[in-house]
Amino acid sequence: EVQLVESGGGLVQAGGSLRLSCAASGFTFDDYEIGWFRQAPGQEREGVSCSTSSDGRIIYGDSVKGRFTMSRDNAKNTVYLQMNSLKREDTAVYYCARDCTAPDYWGQGTQVTVSS
What we know:
Elements: E1 3-7, E2 10-13, E3 18-25, E4 34-39, E5 46-51, E6 58-60, E7 68-73, E8 78-83, E9 92-98, E10 105-106, E11 110-115
Parallel strand pairs: 2-11
Antiparallel strand pairs: 1-3, 3-8, 4-5, 4-9, 5-6, 7-8, 9-10, 9-11
């Protein structure tokens, strides 16, 4: 059974940092892209970052470039999202997913709330 489990969300003040984790199981982790997405209330789901499987590239959405860093540990079947210089507009439920272009499995999401 494919599973993706996020953790690390919470409440943080603007300018602060959080680190999210996504632990995967039930598939050959190395073979797949893993993406971070987020959805704020009343808004569409947005792609945050993507870790490719083949060449180790990390791709970031424009709104988080320079502030967020995604990393991947294939030995632990886990990806991370280090979020620095958080802004109120980063408030959302953050999800990890298998595949970035057409995600087929999603985690349950973790809430990130940034207060002013």
